[in-house]
Design brief:
heterodimer; A: 441 residues; mainly alpha; 73% helix; 0% strand; B: 423 residues; 23 helices
Chain lengths: 441, 423
């Protein structure tokens, strides 16, 4: 029966990877895979149904903690975006020098994506680039670098990237520590490709059509008039997101509660900030309106795939696999480096979930251990190697019609250079920043 | 600290009940209330590991309800996108007001046992708009739809949030609740219908020609398939639970997954952008996510009170003060006309433990009936009522004058029926 479940998992995984050719939405495949794995497990171990029920309840609680965190974060970001809050940042960028502009854009992306999710950051920054870089050829390089910067910027922040967030929510890494150890490797991961382009990038930004300079191509397109409260919402939104790790440190409660609190507060403000608007006008600018625009299919996709990974974990399959990997490859660092590269092809969320199931909880891999930090780095940045390797990449591909092959030829090598440079940087500095194992009484 | 938490809870609850006057969305209030209750509890000095454990247990239980709801909502939206419900509603075409009322109520009753009450009442009110042009007659129809939708949901494990919660929580079993509540629920609807049979006066009114034409609009291919699959999927959820002993939300997600795949394959000749409106991804943008987060917030708050044992001591106090659990549960039903029934039922589940009150006991079944149908007493008492109020601009006072008494008669008649049958 275990073989059958693994087969279902692999077939489901293939269907997810081949979403476009087989024309079946990956969320549907993920939900079916997750439920089927548990169903087969339950039906084949009928005598242990109570135990299986407990395991499932345990997994569901952990998965939901991630999903409600994500839903909260997505809603806050959508709400700030509805008020065009991000224009306060992007409107300040107006240099004409391509190389200088590229550095500025990448750094803004890097720090924005440490606070927001990578997907939103990439969308906001690509919209901006459309306005600033009319030359199509040049713009594709900008878009490619935005992907690299968004992924690198997310990796070192507990609220910047789904995989780092997962490790943080489960307690494998702590907020302060991950930032200290990964910020330098993440910066290197972005700067190495930038330095390379500094010497090789040729061309002009191009001339903007006069109409393009005036309007902002906001990606939701509900009118261009700025609503009152953009600054307030931006500050509240970013303040709310940043307060989440503080909330956790202070109360020791799980991060999703902090996120929901932030959402609740911003929601109230969004309803009160424009008292002169009537209900219908107000609707797009309230959290209820923002909730219709968040990516619920992704939330259900994570639910399905994480349930499937949970089933494999409960059956002990992942542990056995980890044992086999350890024997075959010997060194955790090699395994994790490979996980990062694999994440360019398959989704990094189940990879990280599987790794957590493989190596934890285990006293040998205590919180802030090398493998968790390195995993956060690799799974967060490895996806840049292919355009389909990260949510940011897929979004940019859709927005700018970047070809898979073009990216492989022009950007993949740069991304790989950055990935390995950052990885080496981490492994070199890690001994100096390492947290020592907690003393077991 | 306990007192502060209770005060926060009560203020939050007031904020939710007074959503419209204070103009703050109830979801925002519920989220803040839920998080604050846990935060204060965590800062109050209890061992944080115990609290973390309790919170995780609650989150697991709450998510099981929420993902169930999200799955069900998406399936219903998807069937609706294919205009699948027209397959049923297009068949209704009598001109006799009383006969039509009976027909509409019966369809509502059966439909709402499978779908959620909200969708059922929206579908049925849209139909009534077409069939009953006379405004004052239509208001009676709408009021009865609210009563029928709530009554129809109460006896079915998949028909109503509160009955579903009790089912997911293991307080009731699917087969048993249907058996013991079907008759009381029917009585709850039929008694008002009988009264109206003798008192209802007037005609349906003349149909405007364009309204008649609207019914012959083109349907998308696959509406029958999607209806059958959707209803079949929803009905399969209790069966899935019985066979696998896995929680119902998994069955719901399985049904959603299957329906999703079919919806992507059913119209192969459509291009991506045409197809988009008929995909589950699009249906997901139309489901009521704010309600899901509202439930999350309010159930977290109730969970905090439960973890602190406030609810069980409240139950103890109620028992001594009122003496009879049947009386208490009846009052909960009446109360649910004013406050949301979801936290009421969650609180009751926290108040009475399964050890003292075993599954399928009187208190749980009676709670499912009372919390499910009591909301019909006021138009603001149930999701169905609020939706209909929005659609048909029914006045709170009009409902109070014309329908509250009818609803109360039905509620009491059904309750007596249940208690008699039980004895």
């Amino acid at each position: 029966m275990e073989i059958l479940i693994i087969t279902v998992f692999v077939v489901g995984y293939l269907a997810i990877a081949l979403e476009h050719p087989i024309k079946i939405n990956k969320t549907a495949s993920a939900l079916l895979t997750g439920v089927l794995c548990w169903t087969l497990y339950a039906v084949s171990h009928h005598e242990h149904i109570d135990h299986i029920g407990e395991e499932l309840a345990h997994h569901l609680a952990e998965i939901s903690a991630i999903l409600f965190f994500l839903m909260g974060a997505m809603t806050i970001v959508e709400l700030v975006d509805a008020y065009q809050g991000f224009r306060l940042i992007t409107d300040r960028i107006n240099t004409k020098n391509p190389k200088k502009l590229l550095w500025i854009i990448c750094f803004v992306t890097f720090f924005l994506s440490a606070v927001l999710d990578n997907l939103t950051t990439a969308i906001v920054m690509v919209s901006l680039t459309r306005k600033l870089v009319p030359n199509k050829e040049m713009r594709m390089f900008f878009a490619g670098m935005i992907i690299i910067a968004a992924n690198a910027g997310g990796a070192w922040s507990p609220i910047g990237d789904v995989t780092t967030t997962m490790l943080w929510i489960k307690g494998y890494i702590t907020a302060g520590n991950i930032m200290i150890t990964l910020i330098l490797p993440s910066l290197i991961c972005m700067i190495v490709p930038l330095i390379y382009l500094q010497f090789t990038l040729k061309g002009e930004l191009g001339h903007a059509g006069s109409h393009k300079q005036e309007t902002h191509p906001g990606h939701h397109g509900h009118g261009h008039a700025q609503v009152k409260g953009a600054t307030a919402m931006l500050l509240l939104g970013i303040g709310g997101l940043i307060s989440v790790p503080i909330f956790k440190t202070y109360t020791h409660l799980p991060p999703y509660l902090g996120m929901l609190l932030a959402l609740g507060v911003i929601w109230v403000v969004s309803e009160l900030i424009n008292p002169d608007m009537d209900e219908a006008e107000k609707r797009p600018y309230t959290a209820a309106g923002a909730l219709t625009r968040i990516d619920v299919p992704s939330v259900l996709f994570f639910l399905g795939i994480l349930l499937a990974v949970g089933a494999l974990q409960s059956m002990g399959t992942l542990n056995a696999f980890a044992g086999w990997l350890d024997v075959t490859l010997k060194d955790n660092r090699i395994i994790i480096t490979l996980i990062g590269i694999v994440s360019a092809i398959v989704d990094n969320v189940p990879l990280v979930a599987a790794s957590m199931g493989m190596y934890g909880p285990n006293p040998a891999y205590y919180p802030d251990h090398l493998i968790w930090e390195y995993l956060a780095y690799c799974a967060g940045t490895g996806g840049s190697i292919l355009i389909i390797g990260s949510a940011a990449g897929v979004a940019v591909m859709g927005m700018e019609k970047i070809d898979f092959i073009w990216y492989v030829k022009r950007i993949s090598l740069l991304a790989a250079l950055g990935y390995f440079a950052g990885a080496i940087a981490y492994l070199l500095i890690q001994p100096y920043l390492a947290v020592h194992p907690p003393v077991v009484p | 600290m306990e007192t502060i938490i209770i005060v926060i809870f009560v203020i939050g609850y007031l904020g939710i009940a007074l959503e419209h006057p204070i103009r703050v969305n109830k979801t925002a209030t519920a989220l803040v209330t839920g998080v604050l209750c846990w935060t204060l509890y965590a800062l109050g000095g209890t061992d944080i590991h115990i609290i973390g454990h309790q919170l995780q247990e609650h989150l697991g239980e709450i998510s099981a309800i929420l993902f169930f709801l999200m799955g069900a909502m998406t399936i219903v939206e998807l069937v609706d996108a294919y205009q699948g419900f027209r397959v049923i509603t297009d068949r209704i075409n009598t001109q006799n007001p009383k006969k039509l009322l009976w027909l509409i109520c019966s369809v509502t009753f059966v439909l709402s046992a499978i779908l959620d009450n909200l969708t059922t009442s929206i579908v049925m009110v849209s139909l009534v708009r077409k069939l009953v042009p006379d405004k004052s007659m239509r208001l009676f129809f709408c009021g009865m739809i609210v009563i029928a939708a709530n009554a129809g949901g109460a006896w079915s494990p998949i028909g109503d949030v509160t009955t579903t919660m009790l089912w997911i929580g293991g307080q009731i079993t699917a087969g048993n609740i249907i058996q013991s509540l079907l008759l009381p629920s029917i009585v709850c609807m039929v008694v008002p219908l009988l009264v109206l049979q003798f008192t209802l006066k007037g005609t349906l009114g003349e149909q405007a020609p364009e309204a008649a034409k609207k019914s012959s609009e083109q349907r998308v291919r696959g509406s029958t398939t999607m209806l059958v699959l959707g209803v079949g999927g929803l009905i399969s959820v209790p069966i899935f639970k019985t066979v696998t002993h896995l929680p119902p939300y998994l069955g719901m997600l399985l049904a959603l997954g299957v329906l999703w795949v079919v919806s992507e394959l059913i119209n192969p000749d459509m291009d991506e952008s045409e197809k988009k409106n008929f995909s589950a991804a699009h249906a997901l943008t139309r489901i009521d996510v704010p309600s899901v987060l509202f439930f999350l917030g309010i159930l977290l708050a109730v969970g905090a009170l439960q973890s602190m044992n406030i609810l069980s001591s409240f139950a103890g106090w109620l028992d001594t003060a009122l003496g009879d659990t049947r009386l208490i549960v009846s009052l909960i039903g009446v109360l649910s006309a004013i406050v949301d029934n979801v936290p009421l039922v969650a609180a009751s589940m926290g108040m009475y433990s399964l050890d003292t009150y075993p599954a399928d006991g009187l208190i749980w079944e009676y709670l499912a009936y009372c919390a499910g149908t009591g909301g019909s007493l006021l138009i603001i008492g149930s999701a169905a009522g609020v939706a209909v109020m929005g659609m048909e601009k029914i006045d709170f006072i009009w409902y109070l004058k014309r329908l509250t008494l009818l609803a109360l008669l039905g509620y009491a008649a059904g309750a007596i029926t249940y208690l008699l049958l039980q004895g």
